[in-house]
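Worked example 3 (structure in, sequence out).
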């Protein structure tokens, strides 16, 4: 795991003796777990319990990774703020299980991961996600369904309007939902502004240039992605950040094995700016984190 510079104020770590960092569990938890530090009569007991659970999970992860990796080398960890609010932005996301294991061992903070709600349906993933204080996120792509008919551009002069053939837009699509086109291994989505009729929809933004030629010459199959309100997720992240906690997100939106990174989602900026706007005086550091797996 290679960690680059963070945005925001950070104090150098004085005890980092080499690039090979052997993280001790008793020094890994300077962050605050917001969801277990809410004021109540038993608050301190809940914090201790949460920290112990997190500690044992990290120890278990270290054991598992030691089986597969001879060593884990870190670089730039002295740039990580130890006490202020942090968002770890990790990419490329090669493995949905191993990547979080590596990050929890090397980042020196108690981290709340954003995890796909669909993954929480598996009992073993749900168990570890709860122990780590992860935040489930509903992804529109997990609820995609195939649309009826084909869509195309009616005119090259109007890239904000799509016309359908054999479509049922009024029944299947709601405003602010999206339609997605699959081009080989890539997927491109456009957001719907309004549904005009069963065969005409208005888009919020013009279609991408790579779609113009395909949509103007022939109709394309499409999938419908529902609009999902993520305000609850953002509020939970902002609460954690306001308490000086740390959040980790994989901005590509899913794991993959491609040679280049996927387009990044805008959620990181929204979370950081939203938290600083909601809590004046709060400083949020964004720490880019590159994960590289290779043979020595």
């Amino acid at each position: 795991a290679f960690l680059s510079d963070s945005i925001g104020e950070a104090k150098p770590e004085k005890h980092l003796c080499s690039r090979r960092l052997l993280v001790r569990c008793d020094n890994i938890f300077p962050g605050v777990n917001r969801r277990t530090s809410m004021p109540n009569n038993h608050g301190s007991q809940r914090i201790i319990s949460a920290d112990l659970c997190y500690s044992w999970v990290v120890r278990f992860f270290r054991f598992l990774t030691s089986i597969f990796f001879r060593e884990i080398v870190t670089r730039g960890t002295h740039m990580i703020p130890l006490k202020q609010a942090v968002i770890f932005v990790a990419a490329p996301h090669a493995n949905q299980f191993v990547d979080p294991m590596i990050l929890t061992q090397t980042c020196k903070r108690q981290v709340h991961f954003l995890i796909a709600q669909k993954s929480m349906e598996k009992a073993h993933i749900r168990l570890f996600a709860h122990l780590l204080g992860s935040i489930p996120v509903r992804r529109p792509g997990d609820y995609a369904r195939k649309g009826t008919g084909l869509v195309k551009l009616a005119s090259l002069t109007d890239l904000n309007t799509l016309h359908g053939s054999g479509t049922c837009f009024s029944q299947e699509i709601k405003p602010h939902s999206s339609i997605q086109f699959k081009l080989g291994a890539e997927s491109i989505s456009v957001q719907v502004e309004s549904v005009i009729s069963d065969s005409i929809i208005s888009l919020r933004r013009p279609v991408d240039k790579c779609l113009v030629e395909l949509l103007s010459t022939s109709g394309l199959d499409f999938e419908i992605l529902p609009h999902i309100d993520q305000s609850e997720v953002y509020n939970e992240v902002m609460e954690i950040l306001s308490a000086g906690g740390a959040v980790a997100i994989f901005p590509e939106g899913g794991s993959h094995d491609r040679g280049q990174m996927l387009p990044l989602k805008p959620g990181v900026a929204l979370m950081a700016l939203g938290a600083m706007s909601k809590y004046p005086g709060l400083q949020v550091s964004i720490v880019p984190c590159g994960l590289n797996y290779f043979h020595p």
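Notes: The chain has a mean pLDDT of 77. The chain has seven helices and 13 strands.
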